[in-house]
From TrEMBL:
<feature type="domain" description="Capsule synthesis protein CapA">
    <location>
        <begin position="1"/>
        <end position="248"/>
    </location>
</feature>
<protein>
    <submittedName>
        <fullName>CapA family protein</fullName>
    </submittedName>
</protein>
<dbReference type="InterPro" id="IPR052169">
    <property type="entry name" value="CW_Biosynth-Accessory"/>
</dbReference>
<dbReference type="InterPro" id="IPR029052">
    <property type="entry name" value="Metallo-depent_PP-like"/>
</dbReference>
<dbReference type="Pfam" id="PF09587">
    <property type="entry name" value="PGA_cap"/>
</dbReference>
<comment type="similarity">
    <text>Belongs to the CapA family.</text>
</comment>
<dbReference type="InterPro" id="IPR019079">
    <property type="entry name" value="Capsule_synth_CapA"/>
</dbReference>
Amino acid sequence: MASGDVLPHASIIRQANADAGGEGYDFAPMLAGARSVVSEADLAICHMETVYGPPGDYTGYPTFKSPPQVARALRATGYDACSTASNHTLDDGADGIHRTLAALDRAGVKHAGSGRTATEGRSPAWLRAGGAKVAQLAYTYGTNDIPLPKGKPWSVNLIDKDRVLADARAARKAGADVVVVSLHWGTEWQDAPDRQQLGLGRQLTSARTAGRPDVDLIIGTHAHVPQAYEKVNGTWIVYGMGDQIAGDMINHAGAEDPRGNQGTAGRFTFAAPERPGGRWKVAKAEFVPFWFDTDAGRVVNLNAAIDRGRDVGDLRDRIRRVVLSRGAGKDGLAMGR
C-alpha cells in the first residue's frame, strides 16, 4: 500500500509537541487512524515531503524543517519505506538531506529519491514483500528553484523519462520482481491529472524490455488533493494520493481549501507469475479514503469513521468520485476498508 504527502506545517509540529506532553514530539497519535491499513500490508510506502531540521530548529511553510521524530512515528505506524524526492528536498540543503536519511535509517525506514552519496542517490529502496523482491524508485519535478548542491547532482532525483526508465531497467536486471516508481508531479490544487502526468504516465507504462513492462506501478504525490487512479497500458497509475498529514491548507487563490486534507491510500495485491521471469501482475486494486482532521490533529479512515456513525459520508463520496473519474472502476478498482 502507498499513501500521500507527510507535510508537517507549524500547526502539525505544535500538535506533535502537545501529544508528547510538551516534551519533545510524538507524531504517532496523529497517524494512529491509518495504522490498521498500513500495518496489514506486506509492504507500506509513504511520502516524506519535508526534510528534518537540527535540534530546536523546526519550521513549517514555506521552508520546512521537521522534527526527526516523524521517522519513528512512520515506522511505528507500519511504514517500510518512504519516497524522499520532493520540491522541498533542498529546503535545508545537503545538511537537511543528511539529517533526514539518517533519521529514517535509525527508525528502520528505507528510502528512495535523495542521497548522501552518488551511489545512494542513484539506488532504489530494496524491499521484500510476499516473496517478491521490490525496487522503489522516486523522483520530483523540481526543487522550488533551489539549485542542487555544488558538486552533488545526485542529492535529489529529478524527473526525466530516460533516467527513470534506465533506473527501472537496471533494477530489473538486479533482480527486481516488482518496480514501483514514486513521482512528485502534477499541478497543485488540480483534481484532474495534467498534461505532463498523462503524457509521462503513458510513456513509462508503454516501455518494455523483452516484452515485459519496465514499470509495474506508479504512485504520485504533490498536488495536495486526491487525483484519479487509472490503468494505462496494463499498469496502474495513481496520479495523486493527496495529503496524509498537513495543516489547514491555503490554495493559490488565497482561500482555505479543505481538499488539502483529503487523501487516499492505494492498495495493490500482486500475484506471482506462472513461470519464472514473468510479470507479477496486480490481481486486486483498491483505494482507501482518508482525511486529516485538523481540529483533532488526527488521520481519519473515512470508512471506519462512517462505521462508527460519524457524518463524513459526503467527504468519502467526493474522494471516491475523483478517484474513479477516469474509469478505473471498469478496470476493477474498488474502495477498500
